[in-house]
User: Fold this.
Amino acid sequence: MMSKHNPNPLSSVWHPFTQMKTMPDPLHVRSGKGVMLELEDGRKLMDCISSWWVTLHGHAQPEIAGAIHQQALRLEQVIYAGLTHEPAELLARRLIDLLPEGLTRVFYSDDGSTSVEVALKMAFQYWKNQNYTGRTRFLSFEGAYHGDTLGAMSVAHRSVFTDSFKELMFDVDFLPYPETFIDDPDIDEKECVALTALDGLLEKRGKTYAALIVEPLVQGAGGMRMCRPEFLVSLRDRLKHFDILMIYDEVMVGFGRTGDFFACSKAATVPDILCLAKGLTGGFLPLAATICSEKIFQAFYDDDPHKTFYHGHSYTANPLGCAAGLASLDLLKANQNRFMRMDAWHQKGLALLKNCSTLNRLRLCGTISAMDVHVKSDKGYLSAIGPILREKFLERGFLLRPLGNVLYILPPYCITEGELISIYECIQDVIMKIDV
Ligand SMILES: Cc1ncc(COP(=O)(O)O)c(C=O)c1O
Assistant:
């Protein structure tokens, strides 16, 4: 059969989240160094989004590259069943030590979606193992994104991402996410609406919920929607009352992104289960960890084989990933001022955009800032303004990837104040010249 039009007949690659028919030729990247990427044609781009939020310290970070190299010469991979190795043991210990007290066991997997999948299965079986057969439902939030495997999709906001698979997904109750921004006059009201909706559901069927899953402080793919730490405290108190487990998906916000080591530390709340991925290896290798409390672990610790957690992956606890994780944690601790000072730099940048009438709902959480581009129609992920803006930024040497009409900056921690401000100046320049 004749193939349809293909813009690049030499490539056999099918790209993620991409309509291949309309996809422009992709940019060919030759190398990366710090905050910069170099293209095959010699152009340089500043990576303002940490390459899908994974590049923590900077590209081609030498300490992490060296740790992977050394580990590869010693042990590159080994079956993680009945065997263990030093990098996996050490990384688990270091994560537990860095996290708030109460989280004690680390279950490794491969990426953000699998860390969430593991968390959901763990929460579900936790109740089964104790013969609570009625606790089978999950609570989540409007605007949530937790990955692309079926369980992770089920607890995500229904959207163009999930439409084709709706018959395969399980039923979930969604709560409003009280998203806020700088000088938001209505935040108390929004939190009240969310908590009232929760109270209503808890009253109706509180004892049917296994767990609630939330992206604490910042919903990522849903549009960099930010909530206040106080909201998470109120949430935790209500869930506790009904014995519902709390899952924090810190896949995006972990490892300094919110200005603290973890969102749970910043929000002074300890979940029962916590998901980590993306920044875990500093952005070098796919590795994830689902970390749970002792209470969860003990519900599986039994002579009965049916109480075993039957989940695993070929590359579980890959030694290279764990070695990268250890090197990344060293850097994170040694350079913690880098992610802690970025909030103040963002504030200076946001001040440049404050009076720009096309931008509204300016918001900030640690190393992440975001804003909405005011468009007359077609808001959301598929907004036509997204790709147009992306092109304009690329022309000026900045890699930004708007989520529809939402612009955000989420850079590697090696960025300097001057470089960060230059991103804001670029946004200002593009926005002033564009007709929305
Ligand atoms: C909060 C959150 N959870 C889960 C995921 C899925 O992670 P991955 O793409 O590594 O599967 C993402 C990815 O963007 C995310 O932002």
In short: The mean pLDDT is 96.
